[in-house]
Automatic annotation (TrEMBL):
GO cellular component, one term: cytosol
Pfam families, sorted: FMN_red (PF03358)
Database matches in InterPro entries: Flavoprotein-like_sf (IPR029039), FMN_Rdtase-like_dom (IPR005025), NAD(P)H-dep_reductase (IPR050712)
Residues in NADPH-dependent FMN reductase-like domain copies: 1-145
GO MF, any single term: oxidoreductase activity
Membrane-spanning ranges: none
Full protein name: NAD(P)H-dependent FMN reductase
Length: 188
């Protein structure tokens, strides 16, 4: 199994990337799957004016990103909550693709500087993913006061609690990925 982790924030001083780094390390250290971090800050995509499948000459960078999403068995989206919503950078890549998201297990990880851990963003993100027929994994991982919970390198301040919660989240994520794989092998 292969998981792509999207680190959604492109903001200077971003904090959600800390949690993306944590999940990459957690998955690797526990041999749960192969994992790849897709950092939208590194991609620096322009605002797209059309879905990929309708673009006349998509860039190699865009095609490579789409291929990484398509070939992943599951995707973890790590996003901050900005004013109750998600950043334009994640909406941009969600809307860029369509077929690549179809029935793709998507795990949502949200963070905030405040006490609610980005839970407000989950509803709008779930709705956008539902509209494009992605499969949002029921377990979610919300991180309140992210700067107090993870350092810049993705190390959890309370490692025992973070590992416990990540284990619960990943169990559900992997279950959905395996279920999709089995359904594809035996559709009826």
């Amino acid at each position: 199994m292969h998981i792509a982790i999207i680190s959604a924030s492109v903001r200077v001083g971003r904090n959600s990337h800390r949690v993306a780094l944590f999940f990459k390390r957690f998955i690797e250290e526990n041999n749960l799957a192969s994992v790849e971090l897709l950092d939208l800050n590194a991609y620096q995509f322009p605002l797209f004016d059309e879905r990929l499948r309708f673009q006349a000459k998509p860039s190699e960078k865009v095609l490579a990103f789409a291929d990484k999403i398509k070939n992943a068995d599951g995707v973890i989206m790590v996003t901050p909550e900005y004013n109750g919503g998600y950043p334009a950078s994640i909406k941009n890549v969600i809307d860029l693709l369509y077929d690549e998201w179809y029935k793709k297990p998507i795990g949502l990880v949200t963070v905030s500087d405040g006490p609610f851990g980005g839970t407000q963003v989950m509803t709008s993100l779930q709705f956008s993913l539902w509209k494009i027929k992605a499969w949002v994994v029921p377990a979610m991982f919300a991180v309140p006061k992210v700067r107090e919970a993870y350092d810049e390198n993705g190390n959890a301040i309370n490692k025992e609690l973070s590992n416990k919660l990540a284990g619960i989240f990943m169990k559900e994520m992997l279950w959905c990925m395996e279920a999709k794989k089995r359904m594809e092998e035996n559709p009826y």
